[in-house]
Q: What sequence folds into this?
């Protein structure tokens, strides 16, 4: 049997083989032919793991926290995976830095599997790629998948939106840091972590966040707890993990949240696939090139061309798409 075939990879992954897991993740990320079939097989085996988003500015201590949280969870008997949407994340004390090839690999540190993903170039889009990897880790048997991402940029925000629980990491001395949080991240936080509590100003940051939360009457969500940690010494981590486990076991986000996520994922997947199909078909037989030439010579405008193309597609497929 071809040991690199999808079915063999899935089989070995399910048997606990880390190399197969790593290979599978890469091939799905690269959208190699058959990836969708593979995900169809993997999907029913997922759905148990909790996705925890960890977001905050660069240097806030997200990787150190993720490591610490993973350690605590492992000590509590849970299986943990980490996805770092930031290839510069120094997860094994810096040894990942400056080694691009190895960074693409999956790391196994004390049973915690760590996957770095580049922010650019994810074929299925960063958000979907992170979801796919999380599902594979879930099927592999992880109870928790931590996703670390810098809290800037639409893609990154989408990634944390897909999480079951979101930790927003702040640090003292950030200046307008808390202010900046208001844009987008604030409302998706389930727990605020004030890290680097060993530094002066931690108390002020906590107060800032608390008063900001008091001002925010719009949300019907329970007020997120604000916790202090010193990630590199582990101080505050047991309490953070206790809070996290508590929140995970209470279905506060409810069904609508899940439905919203499923809806977004469906639309996202469909969109990506459609774009792929359209591009492929339009590029076939030089049709796209012809259109480009027509626009260049100003014989046609892009709007009419898109309209024509669209109606061609719709009319051709109308009879084939079932109504239900
Ligand atoms: N003083 C202090 N330094 C910390 C703390 N947590 C992390 N660091 C340090 O802050 C730097 C950035 O941490 P890192 O986890 O890479 O941040 P990330 O960019 O958010 O992932 C590292 O040098 C850490 O050792 C903390 O609680 N206190
Ligand atoms: Mg990091």
A:
């Amino acid at each position: 049997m071809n040991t690199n075939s999808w079915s063999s990879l899935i089989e070995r992954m399910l048997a606990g083989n880390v190399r197969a897991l790593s290979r599978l993740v890469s091939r799905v990320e690269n959208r190699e032919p058959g990836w969708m079939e593979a995900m169809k097989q993997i999907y029913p085996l997922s759905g148990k793991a909790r996705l925890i988003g960890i977001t905050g500015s660069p240097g806030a201590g997200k990787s150190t926290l993720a490591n610490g949280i993973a350690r605590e969870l492992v000590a509590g008997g849970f299986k943990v995976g980490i996805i770092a949407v930031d290839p510069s994340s120094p997860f094994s004390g810096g040894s990942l830095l400056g080694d691009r090839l190895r960074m693409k690999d999956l790391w196994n540190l004390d049973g915690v599997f760590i996957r770095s993903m580049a922010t650019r170039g994810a074929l299925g889009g960063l958000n979907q790629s992170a979801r796919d990897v999380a599902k594979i880790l879930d099927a592999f048997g992880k109870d928790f998948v931590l996703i670390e991402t810098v809290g800037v940029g639409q893609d990154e925000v989408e990634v944390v939106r897909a999480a079951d629980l979101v930790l927003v990491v702040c640090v003292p001395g950030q200046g307008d840091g808390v202010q900046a949080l208001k844009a987008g991240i604030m409302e998706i936080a389930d727990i605020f972590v004030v890290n680097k509590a060993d530094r002066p100003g931690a108390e002020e940051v906590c107060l800032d966040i608390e008063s900001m939360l008091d001002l925010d009457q719009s949300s019907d969500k329970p007020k997120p707890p604000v916790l202090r940690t010193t990630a590199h010494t582990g101080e505050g981590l047991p309490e953070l993990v206790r809070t996290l486990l508590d929140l995970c076991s209470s279905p506060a986000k409810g069904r609508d949240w899940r439905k919203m996520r499923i809806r977004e994922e469906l639309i996202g997947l469909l969109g990506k696939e459609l774009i792929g199909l359209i591009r492929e078909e339009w590029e076939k037989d030089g049709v796209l090139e012809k259109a480009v030439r027509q626009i260049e010579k100003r014989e046609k405008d892009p709007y009419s061309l898109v309209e024509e193309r669209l109606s061609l597609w719709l009319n051709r497929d109308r009879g084939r798409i079932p109504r239900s």
